[in-house]
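HUMAN: Would you supply a protein with fold tokens?

ASSISTANT:
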Amino acid sequence: MGHTPSDTIAVVGAGVMGRSITALALGRGVHVVLVDVSEEVLGNARAEIAQQLRHGQFMGAFPGSPAPGTLTTTQSTSDVADAAVVIEAITEDASLKARVMADISSTVPAGVPLITNTSGIPIAELAKSVQRPAELAGVHFMNPAYLIEMVEVIRGPQTGDDAMAAILSVLERLGKKTVVVRDAPGFVTSRLLHPMINEAARVVAEGTASVEAVDRLMHGCLGHPTGPLRTADLIGLDNLADALRLLAERTGNPTFEPCELLMEKVRRGDLGRKTGRGFYDYGKVLS
């Protein structure tokens, strides 16, 4: 590869979050090995990451304008073995994540920390699949990762001091502000944000206020940056429904179950910005 491990990270999963995390790292001058099972997905990811890099540069997200890192794409997880840290960023599916984490864990040498990018699956649950639970922690990157400065870092019950120090050092290199929290379903941000979005959708379904009115009130009165329903469209309504089901299941609280309006939109395929329509109409499908 030609790079030293300290300036190379591996990202496993070239979906929405994997692309965004990759753009963040490249923009900060860090080299990235991006892994996915699909060559087609990797090809599309390359084009979108280049676009995100340009957007990040335009928005001043990479201070000092370092020379961008190089991107290597591969379909083989064996190519992650030389990275300083491996970030798993596949879809938010606990059993799929567990399988991928087991594969990565058997590939990387001892001492290389593993990060799972999750919005709410308990780290203790995923730690059962890895060979060295002390080297696993969670990082909940917000989308787009190259623009949102803060991340939620989740220390699992078995996460060791060395891994935590290494992970915080990598995040600092990526320009992130960090808040470390303890392990729990939904952690802090999802535990608070996702049920709020669910309630906002219920308010609309009950006819109390329109989508626009809910968001304007939350923005104007309570300082929410975009409003909960516009935020839902950015997250993806299918992802949101999955996260809410996970919260309901893991906490035993049935009020977290996704409401009917949300499920109706998911069934119709109106999943938010990525499909062109969710709570708002965006006019065209985003590629």
Summary: The chain has two domains: 5-182, 189-275. The domain at 189-275 is CATH 1.10.1040.10 (N-(1-d-carboxylethyl)-l-norvaline Dehydrogenase; domain 2). Residues 39-58 form the longest helix (20 residues).
